[in-house]
Every structure is written in structure tokens, then in C-alpha cells.
Automatic annotation (TrEMBL):
Coiled coil: none
GO molecular function: lyase activity; metal ion binding
InterPro entries linked: CbiX-like, Sirohydro_Cobaltochel/CbiX
Name this protein carries in UniProt: Cobalamin biosynthesis protein CbiX
Record keywords, A-Z: Lyase, Metal-binding
Source organism (scientific name): Microbacterium esteraromaticum
Superkingdom assignment: Bacteria
Lineage summary: Bacteria, Bacillati, Actinomycetota, Actinomycetes, Micrococcales
């Protein structure tokens, strides 16, 4: 019996490097799942949108949000389009997860002083369900690194990044973002002289490729949703 298709849905970005990073992640997932039809969709900015991408898939499908937390896009957009088809299911978002903390720690290893405090910059959402997810990844990163981890939001919530950095003038900024785009540019502006890590997928621009833990995580989300049916 054929396995369900995997529809990987990200936010979408007008940043060329950010879009390329997401596409490379999806391609790596497809390489690892040769028996699964893997497609890509978006909730904003890029095409095809999630509804159109889903309509183009015949048969059962698992929608995997390439999103780091709960929020409007997960619960309204993706669960909304999945609800319209009996053979579609939406998996959980990617975060929080120890694999994301692993990649964040790898990013931090090459930036700033090893014992500096860290301000973890997350995108932020007005959806209350995003708050425990942001706090969860901060706790996972704190556990993994043993460093002071302060949380800051790039939109919608407080403390914002400038406020958090004012309270930790020797901090490194860790960006909890998949790829380059609006929020990374905003974080870089607010960071000013503070060292800042690249986004999680930024290895696309080096010869190291997409981090394996991120590929593992997307596949894990797909396989869990597949098993739960």
C-alpha cells in the first residue's frame, strides 16, 4: 500500500537565500523518503499556497508544518485545509524539540564567547499557544548548553530584542528562525554589535549542507502523523 504523500508547508519568504534554504530542506527530505511523494506549499508570500498544493495531491497526505511553534498558521491555515479532506492530516509543528536545540547549540558554538549569555530571538505570535513553545525551546537550549538563555520576541510579545539585550549587554543573539527573511533582517538590525547566529538552515550557503537533525525532525513529524492516521 503506498505511503501518504508529504506536503511540507512553510511560511514563505521573498528572500532568495531563505527560499532556497527551505527548498533544500524539502529536497533532502525527499531524498531520504524515496517511497513518498514529497511536495512543497506555503501559507504566505510564495506559491503554491497550502490549499492549492493540497488539491494537487491525489490520495492520502500528511501536511508537515515547516513552522517552529503553534500559532494561527498551524491551527487556522493548515488544520483548516486538512479538515476539508478525509484523507489528509496535519502533523505537529517542528518545535519545540531537542533536535532544534541541537542545531541552535551548533550555531552558538561558532559565535561569540563560549560562556556568554544568550538571548534567544523568536519570531513571536499573538496566539497564546506559541508562548509555551517558545519557553520550551529556551529550556531545551539551556539544558543542552548550560548557559544563561533569555527569551526575546521579534514581534507581538515582550520582551522585545532591544529590551532583552539592554539587560544582557554581553549576550550573543541566537536566532530561532529556519531561514533568512524579514525576521532575520530585523534581528540583525536590533543586535547591532552583538554577535548573532545564522538561521537554522543557513548551512545551505556552506559546503556542509542542510543540518541532518532538521531532516530527521521533518521525517519524524511525518512518520508520527502517518502512524496515528
Amino acid at each position: 500500500m503506498p505511503r501518504p504523500a508529504l506536503l511540507a508547508v512553510s511560511h514563505g519568504t521573498s528572500d532568495v537565500d531563505g527560499a532556497r534554504s527551505i527548498a533544500a530542506l524539502v529536497a533532502r527530505v525527499a531524498e531520504r523518503l524515496p517511497d513518498v511523494e514529497v511536495r512543497e506549499g506555503f501559507v504566505d508570500v510564495q506559491q503554491p499556497d497550502a490549499a492549492s498544493a493540497l488539491a494537487a495531491v491525489d490520495g492520502p497526505v500528511v501536511i508537515v508544518p515547516l513552522l517552529l511553534s503553534q500559532g494561527f498558521h498551524v491551527h487556522h491555515d493548515l488544520h483548516g485545509v486538512a479538515a476539508g479532506r478525509a484523507d489528509a492530516v496535519a502533523a505537529a509543528p517542528l518545535g519545540p524539540d531537542p533536535l532544534l536545540a541541537e542545531v541552535l547549540a551548533l550555531r552558538l558554538a561558532g559565535v561569540g564567547e563560549p560562556d556568554s549569555p544568550v538571548v534567544l530571538a523568536v519570531a513571536g505570535s499573538r496566539d497564546e499557544r506559541s508562548v509555551p513553545d517558545a519557553e520550551g525551546i529556551a529550556a531545551l537550549l539551556r539544558e543542552r548548553t548550560g548557559r544563561r538563555i533569555d527569551l526575546a520576541y521579534l514581534a507581538a510579545r515582550h520582551p522585545d530584542l532591544p529590551t532583552a539585550l539592554a539587560a544582557a549587554p554581553d549576550a550573543v543573539v541566537a536566532t530561532y528562525l529556519l531561514g533568512r527573511g524579514f525576521f532575520f533582517d530585523l534581528a540583525a538590525r536590533h543586535a547591532r554589535a552583538h554577535p548573532i547566529t545564522p538561521p537554522l538552515l543557513d548551512d545551505l550557503l556552506t559546503d556542509q549542507g542542510i543540518p541532518d537533525p532538521l531532516v530527521d525532525l521533518v521525517i519524524a513529524r511525518y512518520e508520527r502523523a502517518e502512524a496515528e492516521g
